[in-house]
Design goal:
With about 250 residues, this protein is an alpha+beta fold. Helix content is about 45%, strand content about 20%. It has two domains: about 10-70, Winged helix-like DNA-binding domain superfamily/Winged helix DNA-binding domain (Arc Repressor Mutant, subunit A); about 80-245, 2-Layer Sandwich (Beta-Lactamase). The strands form two sheets. It has a six-stranded antiparallel sheet, with helices on both faces. It has a two-stranded antiparallel sheet with strand order 1-2. A hairpin with a 2-residue loop joins strand 1 and strand 2 (about 60-65). It is globular, with a radius of gyration of 20 Å.
């Protein structure tokens, strides 16, 4: 097995960016030094360099993630023509159903939200861009896991799964049965497994030329759903996934 080499400066920069991304407000240099374990002199040199690159910005008495890093991150969806195809398809879905649409990729055992188009009315969401959730508990994650073989899912997930809410599936065997049904129907459904009062419907798009596994979903408060509307939304999200698959 080849030895993994690490570049200390890059690792330290990554630690700084991770700390800023996880914070809800600007992080002071003294706090960063304590969290990361760097000397003040080394830390200030790195902060100055990252600020010049616009990867971070000085805000009040601390630092936040900068606009330059946001621009680089957006290249992740531009390279596969995902962004343009998603916006076109999501716009049509929203015009018809007036519900939010989200795009996510699979990263190990998590989903990472990479794009979102909002409806014309507010909805309570947990899907800020760049945020991640355990794949086993959300419809997007289940749609993505259904694109894998059972053997791969078993390798990645333990027998006991984390409970995000009381309704989250916590047994791998139960999840595997649900994934089999998703492969047959082409649709993943989740009710209150991530957030109380919220249902999510998702469909697997496929693998992009760059090797990203992609799925699309919509999240709807249970109070806005009846049997007829749920059927319409399910059909719409499957059609949107097919549109994106064709565009890629």
């Amino acid at each position: 097995m080849e030895k993994a080499y690490d570049v200390p400066a890059l690792r330290r920069a990554s630690d700084i960016l991770d700390a800023l991304a996880a914070a809800a407000k600007p992080v002071r240099a003294a706090t960063l030094a304590e969290q990361i374990g760097l000397s003040r002199s080394t830390l200030y040199l790195m902060l100055e360099t990252l600020a010049r690159m616009q990867w971070i910005e000085k805000r009040d008495d601390g630092y936040v993630v900068g606009v330059g890093l946001f621009e680089l991150g957006n290249a992740y969806v531009r390279h596969d023509a995902l962004q343009a195809a998603f916006r076109e398809g999501a716009g049509a879905f929203i015009n018809k159903h007036n519900e939010v649409v989200q795009l996510a990729v699979l990263d190990g055992v998590h989903v990472v939200y990479v794009a979102r188009e909002d409806a014309h009315r507010p909805v309570r969401l947990v899907s800020d861009l760049g945020s991640r959730l355990p794949a086993h508990c959300c419809a997007l994650g289940k749609a993505l896991l259904a694109g894998l073989a059972d053997e791969t899912v078993i390798e990645r997930l333990p027998e006991r799964l984390e409970a995000v809410t009381p309704r989250t599936i916590t047994r791998r065997a139960a999840l595997l049965r649900e994934l089999a049904a998703i492969r047959t129907s082409g649709l993943a459904v989740e009710r209150e497994e991530v957030a109380e009062g919220l249902a999510c419907f998702a469909a697997y798009v496929g693998m992009t030329p760059a090797g990203k596994r992609v799925a699309v979903s919509t999240s709807v408060p249970l109070g806005r759903l009846d049997a007829k509307r749920e059927k319409q939304i399910c059909i719409g999200i499957v059609q949107l996934a097919a549109h994106l698959r064709g565009a890629l």
